[in-house]
Amino acid sequence: MIGKSENITILNTLTATLIDSVEGYRDAAQNTESGRFQELFRQMANERSTCVEDLRAEVRRLGGDAEDDQSTMGSFHQRWLDLKAAITGRDDKAIINEVERGEDYLKAKFEKALDDGELDGDSRSVVERAFQSVREGHDKVSALKHGMEAAS
């Protein structure tokens, strides 16, 4: 177990990564031509926004300042997604591939935070609930990607 300040650091790191995810989904919704994908990406951005707020609330409960900005790596990923969309002419398959790559990264961050066993009970519970959403989102996008590959 670690102290409150370490819990706050872990929670804020995960929050920044989730903010990246929210922005990534919003970006993907704007860049895809498919109305079906636009709606899915907007819905997933909203789900992730809820997770962000849950993590922020836990940071505040611990007496910390909640993260309100995306990570540097996320900012780079956003620009890559923008660039990729521009280059590929808003190719849905390319967008789905980039979204899945982001989902893989996000899932790994949460798994590491949970596997380290350093979060205390309440903070761990909040992270586990957020991870359920992350895992479900990851699986949805992965299934979508593999479905597109099978149809090709």
TrEMBL record:
<dbReference type="InterPro" id="IPR016920">
    <property type="entry name" value="UCP029477"/>
</dbReference>
<dbReference type="InterPro" id="IPR019052">
    <property type="entry name" value="DUF2383"/>
</dbReference>
<protein>
    <submittedName>
        <fullName>PA2169 family four-helix-bundle protein</fullName>
    </submittedName>
</protein>
<dbReference type="InterPro" id="IPR012347">
    <property type="entry name" value="Ferritin-like"/>
</dbReference>
<dbReference type="Pfam" id="PF09537">
    <property type="entry name" value="DUF2383"/>
</dbReference>
<dbReference type="InterPro" id="IPR011971">
    <property type="entry name" value="CHP02284"/>
</dbReference>
<feature type="domain" description="DUF2383">
    <location>
        <begin position="8"/>
        <end position="115"/>
    </location>
</feature>
